[in-house]
Amino acid sequence: MFIQFKLEGCQLTNIVELTNISLIRENKLLLNDISWEINQNEHWCLLGLNGCGKTTLLNVINGYIWPTKGEATILNHTFGATNLPEMRKEIGWVSSSLQQRFPEDETAITIVLSGKFASIGLYESVTQEEIKRANQLLKQLKCQHFANQLYRTLSQGERQRVLIARALMASPKLLILDEPCTGLDLLAKEQLLLLIQQIAIEPDGPTLIYVTHHVEEILSCFTHTMLMKEGRVFSAGKTADLLTEDRLSAFFEQEVLVQKIKDRTWLSLKEKVTY
Ligand SMILES: Nc1ncnc2c1ncn2[C@@H]1O[C@H](COP(=O)(O)OP(=O)(O)OP(=O)(O)O)[C@@H](O)[C@H]1O
């Protein structure tokens, strides 16, 4: 078994339930009537071009941005009638923007331990049990050899793995991975994807939302995919039904060639890019 997860508390219905979410900022419609349902036993990939609203949507799911219209229920917490900080403890979030926010002088293991309290920096005392779990997570994410190294001295790939260990520290029910492969070389990226695949197939592991620009990062564990475009849902459903030449050509508004190699989908343009 990769990592032992404990899902505690009441039985969940849906993991994410967004109904007709719209968001207006500075007279711009950033999210346009988005409905999205994520059930247990599903893992989703969110694919979209730059600026289509992916990060904005994740901020709505985490309760950091309040939608202008629509309803959101995340892990049984209905916005407007819930304690958002409590809800956030059940959500792990890894993004490269988070990488810059940690104190310079903290070690990898301290960063992982802070995940228990969903804090940037460790301000609470920790138990031996928690230290044991942090070490176990570091080991399972292949980071044990730099557990006591200063976080600021780690490479980008090493930091991403530490941040995933941190996100898992509180046994989240939902784990959001926002472009975790940004800046990684080919091997570091494939190693990280392998670890993500292992987390996804854990029987009691968290539901995953994986955000990317790159179709080839959509692993076989991602049962469902949402294609997002200009603040809207372009298509959503079973991954196998979405990653077709017709659908992706319509999505990119450009003829694409789809190649399936070893459970992964690779895209290239049939013609030169058009503007
Ligand atoms: N507070 C704001 N006011 C006005 N426009 C905003 C605001 N926040 C975001 N935007 C705009 O909303 C759009 C969506 O931004 P968002 O960061 O969600 O995109 P994204 O899909 O995550 O992009 P990327 O893949 O490049 O990270 C962008 O055009 C951005 O400029």
Distance between the termini: 48 Å
* Widest β-sheet, arrangement of strands: 6-7-8-3-9-10
User: Helix-strand pattern, N to C?
Assistant: EEEHEEHEHHHHEHEEEHHEE
Uncertain regions: pLDDT < 50 for 5+ in a row? 4-9
CATH class of the largest domain: Alpha Beta
- Our estimate of the beta-strand percent is 25-35%
Mean pLDDT: 88
Q: How many DSSP H or I helices?
A: 9
Please render the helix and strand layout as text.
Layout: E1 14-25, E2 28-39, E3 44-48, H1 54-61, E4 69-74, E5 77-78, H2 84-88, E6 91-95, H3 96-99, H4 108-114, H5 128-140, H6 156-168, E7 174-178, H7 186-200, E8 207-212, E9 224-229, E10 232-238, H8 239-242, H9 245-252, E11 256-261, E12 264-269
Parallel strand pairs: 3-8, 3-9, 6-7, 7-8
Antiparallel strand pairs: 1-2, 1-4, 4-5, 9-10, 11-12
Bound molecules: adenosine-5'-triphosphate.
